[in-house]
Design a protein that fits this description.
216 residues, alpha+beta, three-stranded antiparallel β-sheet, 8 strands
Length: 216
């Protein structure tokens, strides 16, 4: 009877398998981190931003107007478009009145540029979702653009704005909030003076997709 030749086993060692899996996971994480996520807000035209500036100015006057002794202070509601317009105006990216009404600008231009791979400033894109604030900005790590998206509850304590994150993403990678909250709160403490609310404001929070500013 002829002898059967048994081929030697070519099973990979356990350590080699673990190394391959670890490498695959690392590559997958890197791809997610460097991936450009979907923008948190749609592009806004010059027309929308200009209208936002006008309505914002009206509401700012409401905040500074004196309150009658016999009347309660009514809260002022600010929309995401108004906040975007204020940010664009503060950054000097709101175009002149002669610009095309269909030309995206400010944070809208940043959004489009980011999605097209064009270098963008670190000006954040801010919007509101239900009772939460959602922001997105671009940072640079080791020469690579990294897109950070954060979501959470805005509030006030002892005359200063507070923020409690509920979601944190780097690129398309979800990062547990517990891993970043301490660093975020430390960063906010370093910027404490910038978070001080005007003396006439007692509270800020997001409600029904709007920023609600409560007067004293």
């Amino acid at each position: 009877m002829p002898l059967k030749v048994v081929a030697p086993s070519r099973k990979l060692p356990v350590r080699r398998i673990v190394s391959i899996v670890t490498l695959a996971v690392a590559v997958g994480v890197l791809v997610l981190v460097l991936h450009k996520p979907k923008p948190v807000a749609p592009p806004r035209t010059h027309e929308a931003l200009a209208a936002g500036v006008q309505s914002l100015q009206t509401k700012v006057r409401q905040l500074s107007a004196p309150i009658a002794a016999d009347q309660p202070a009514e809260p002022v509601h600010l929309t995401a478009d108004e906040i975007a317009a204020a940010m664009a105006q503060a950054a000097g990216t709101l175009p002149a009145a002669g610009a095309s009404a269909n030309t995206p600008t400010g944070d809208a231009a940043n959004t489009i540029a980011a999605m097209d791979g064009v270098p963008t400033p670190s000006e954040p894109i801010v919007t509101f979702d239900g009772d939460q604030l959602q922001g997105q900005f671009v940072s640079e790590v080791a020469g690579k653009k990294v897109y950070v998206t954060v979501k959470g509850h805005l509030g006030a304590k002892d005359g200063y704005a507070t923020f409690e994150p509920t979601e944190f993403k780097v690129g398309d990678l979800n990062v547990p909030v517990s891993l970043v909250n301490d660093a975020l709160q430390k960063r906010m403490m370093e910027q404490h003076d910038k978070l001080k609310l005007p003396d006439s404001v007692s509270d800020v929070h997001v409600e029904n997709g709007e920023l609600v500013v409560t007067r004293k």
